[in-house]
Amino acid sequence: MKLRTGTFICFAALAAASPAVAQWSGRISSGNLRDGREVRSAFKGLVTSTDAATVRIVCNGKDAALGAVVGADGWIVTKYSELREPVVCRFIDGRQLPARVTGYDSHYDLAMLKVDATGLKTIEWAEDEHGPAVGQLLATASPGELPVAIGVVSVPRRTIPEHRPRPRAQLGIEFDLENMEDKPLIVKVLKGSPAERAGLKVDDVLIEANGQPVESSDRFIDFIRQCNPGEHVELRVKRGDDEMQLTAILKRPEEVGNVSRSDRMNEMGGPLSYRSSSFPSVIQHDTVLRPADCGGPVVDLSGKVVGINIARAGRTESYAAPADEVRHLLADLESGRLAPKEPLPGAKETKKTSAPADESNTESKKTSS
To answer: Vertex 257, ends 251 and 260: CA angle to 5°?
Structure first.
């Protein structure tokens, strides 16, 4: 009840300041409070300036994230772990420019992109270092006609502890729990899984994935964690004295039937971000975001940017890196001192991928992929 009360207090304040909101504020119901077009339209004026400084990040032809322009000469902040090569930034005016990653902050899962452009519109940061108060309304900007979604600050600013990365996709095999660092010997193939369809069998040993050696079960799991549903994975396996080449098309975990009941409940509002934990400090709000709508700016009722969305973490949980924290990172992210140690998945230089430094050792004893 406290959050609902706070929500309507904020709506009342907004209605007093905005004739557009005043016209429909009396007709708001719980059913259209969040994402209805009418509600989002009322926030259009508040986010117009920020929308012009928001870009859509497209990776390998698919929507991957949003981004915030933080430098007029082509600097854009976004969410790192959703990126894939090639990276393209699509601006509100329709321009599409290739981008490269110049910096990566593992604490907040943020990346700095650089595009060849000048005179770009930049976001305007909020100055309050304490951030928005509990119950305050927030709007997630977009390079489009309306905000992506509206939400409410849920709890005071807090730290998010580490938990296992969420798998993007699964192959549908299991390894021996006691020999995870040894050769990747398959001990189970899930029925109807991509692994079964590809022809993998129990006692097969994985030798290569996408042309790169598979050194252990742990390393292979790290590889699969970075893949997306629908990706083709070329596998070389040893079966007895023979070697063979197989191709698997990965599926979402729920399609493989390897999702816990708690995970299913948590994802009732839609898919969650792959990296959704281990953040030093966040603004938690109840905006319903797609993972592909993280990475962009979130604004308060003044239209100023209070943070950068970094994760959809639960049915009613989204996280934003606070503005003051992000601003402290910008110089280092631009300088190259925080350049990623590994190429993005999909890079031509190598097809081998691994989790970022802060996640690579998480739950090393996971038994399936």
So the answer is: 115
- Of the CA atoms within 13 Å of residue 227, those in its CB half-sphere come to 25
Nearest C-alpha neighbor of 158 from the set 276, 316, 283, 278? 283
Instruction: List phi, psi (to 5°) of 368.
Output: -135, 160
Residues 52, 63: contact at Cβ < 8 Å? no
| Side-chain half-sphere exposure of 255, counting CA atoms within 13 A | 16
pLDDT at 167: 67
Give the pLDDT confidence score for residue 65 in this predicted structure.
97
How confident is residue 183, by pLDDT bands cut at 50, 70 and 90?
confident
Tokens at residue 64, please?
Answer: 């991957």
Average pLDDT rounded to a whole number, residues 47-66: 95
pLDDT-wise least confident of 13-22, 113-122, 265-274, 311-320: 13-22
Residue 7 has phi, psi (to 5 degrees) of -60, -50
